[in-house]
C-alpha cells in the first residue's frame, strides 16, 4: 500500500527564499535565484519569472503551505494571496545560500577594489596602483582594526605596573587618544549590506588616513572661466570673531590679505596647466584636489555674480605605465 503524502506538502529544491515575519508568524515564498533582486530593482516585472510557485509557505524546505486561517489572521481577511506575496517580496528578507553569498561578496569586493584603484594614486609619481596592491593595503588595515578591537576587549592582567602619571593626567591622555582614534576612519572589510560605491569611499578615507602605502586622491582637471571685470575685485574678508576689535588699518590689512578674486581662485588650484585671456574672459586650466572642488565651486558661484564658470575636464587624472 503506497504511503500517502499530505496534500498540502509541496517539495521544492534549488530555490531562493524570501522570509517575512508578521504577527509573530514566519512566512516564506519560493523564488528563482537572482530574480528577487532584479524584481526589486525594477529590471524584472513579471512575477511568473520570480516565483517558483505562487503560494505562501510556513516552511518551503518541507513544502508546508500556510493555512488560509493563519494568513487571514496575520495579513487581514480581505487581503488576497497575490497581495500577501507582493508584501513578502517587498519587505521580506532574502535568504541566500553559502555559494551565492560568497559569489556576491567577491563581486562587491572586486568592484570596491576597482573603484579605489581608479581614484587613488602614488602622490610622488601620480601613478595608479594595481588592484592587487590596493587589496593588500586594505587587508593590512582590516587586520589592524581587528587587532585593535581585540586589544580593547582584553582585560589587563593582574600585577600590571601602575603608571606614574597622575589620575587626571592619565584620564586626559586616554581621552585625547580615544578622540584621535575615533577621528581616524577604520576599515574592517567588505560587506554585502552596503553599495560598492559607498564602501569604496570608506576604503579611500581609511587608506589616506593610515597610509599603509603612500596614497592620495587623484586630482581633478578643471577649466575655469571668469570675466576680467571681476578678477581684480577684493574678496570679502571673513567675519571677525566676537570680541575681537580691530581698527580701520587692521581691517584693511585683513582685506588685503584675503586678496582678489583671481588670487583666491588660483589658491584652490594645485597646478596650473594653462591660463590665458581671450577677449573679456580669463581662462585657466589646472589640477585641483577633489576635496577642494566644493569650496572652489561655492566661491565662484558666490563671488563672481554669475560671471564665472567651472567645468570638469577629468574627474581623476592619473598616469599609467
Could you describe the 3D structure shown?
This protein is α+β, with helices and mostly antiparallel strands and 321 residues long. The chain folds into three domains: 16-95, Hypothetical 12.0 Kda Protein In Nam8-gar1 Intergenic Region, Chain: A, CATH 3.30.1250.10; 99-149 and 181-216, SBDS protein C-terminal domain, subdomain 1 (Arc Repressor Mutant, subunit A); 219-239 and 247-317, Alpha-Beta Plaits. The protein is built from eleven helices and eleven strands. It has helices at 35-40, 68-75, 81-91, 98-119, 131-153, 167-183, 196-210, 228-231, 248-258, 261-268, 293-303; strands spanning 16-22, 25-31, 57-59, 64-65, 93-95, 120-121, 216-217, 219-227, 271-278, 281-288, 308-317. The strands form four sheets. It has a four-stranded antiparallel sheet with strand order 9-10-8-11. A three-stranded antiparallel sheet has the order 2-1-5. The model is unreliable at 155-172, 175-180 and 238-256 (pLDDT under 50). This is SBDS protein C-terminal domain-containing protein. Residues 110-218 form the Ribosome maturation protein SDO1/SBDS central domain. Associates with the 60S ribosomal subunit.
Amino acid at each position: 500500500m503506497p504511503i500517502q503524502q499530505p496534500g498540502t506538502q509541496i517539495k521544492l529544491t534549488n530555490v531562493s527564499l524570501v522570509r517575512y515575519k508578521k504577527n509573530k508568524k514566519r512566512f516564506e515564498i519560493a523564488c528563482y535565484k537572482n530574480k528577487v533582486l532584479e524584481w526589486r530593482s525594477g529590471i524584472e516585472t513579471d512575477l511568473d519569472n520570480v516565483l517558483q510557485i505562487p503560494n505562501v509557505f510556513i516552511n518551503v524546505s518541507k513544502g508546508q503551505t500556510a493555512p488560509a486561517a493563519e494568513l487571514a489572521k496575520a495579513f487581514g481577511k480581505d487581503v488576497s494571496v497575490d497581495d500577501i506575496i507582493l508584501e513578502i517580496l517587498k519587505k521580506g528578507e532574502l535568504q541566500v545560500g553559502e555559494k551565492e553569498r560568497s559569489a556576491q561578496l567577491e563581486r562587491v569586493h572586486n568592484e570596491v577594489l576597482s573603484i579605489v584603484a581608479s581614484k587613488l594614486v602614488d602622490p610622488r609619481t601620480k601613478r595608479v596602483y594595481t588592484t592587487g596592491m590596493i587589496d593588500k593595503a586594505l587587508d593590512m588595515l582590516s587586520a589592524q582594526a581587528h587587532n585593535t578591537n581585540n586589544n580593547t576587549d582584553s582585560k589587563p592582567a593582574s600585577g600590571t605596573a601602575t603608571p606614574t602619571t597622575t589620575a587626571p593626567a592619565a584620564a586626559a591622555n586616554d581621552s585625547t587618544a580615544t578622540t584621535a582614534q575615533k577621528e581616524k576612519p577604520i576599515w574592517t572589510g567588505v560587506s554585502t549590506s552596503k553599495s560598492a560605491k559607498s564602501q569604496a569611499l570608506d576604503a579611500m578615507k581609511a587608506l589616506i588616513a593610515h597610509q599603509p602605502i603612500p596614497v592620495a586622491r587623484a586630482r581633478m582637471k578643471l577649466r575655469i572661466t571668469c570675466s576680467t571685470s571681476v578678477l581684480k575685485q577684493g574678496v570679502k574678508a571673513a567675519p571677525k570673531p566676537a570680541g575681537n576689535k580691530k581698527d580701520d588699518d587692521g581691517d584693511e590689512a585683513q582685506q588685503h590679505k584675503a586678496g582678489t578674486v583671481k588670487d583666491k581662485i588660483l589658491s584652490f588650484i594645485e597646478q596650473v596647466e594653462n591660463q590665458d585671456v581671450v577677449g573679456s574672459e580669463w581662462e585657466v586650466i589646472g589640477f585641483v584636489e577633489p576635496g577642494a572642488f566644493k569650496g572652489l565651486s561655492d566661491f565662484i558661484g558666490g563671488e563672481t555674480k554669475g560671471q564665472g564658470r567651472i567645468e570638469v575636464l577629468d574627474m581623476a587624472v592619473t598616469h599609467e605605465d
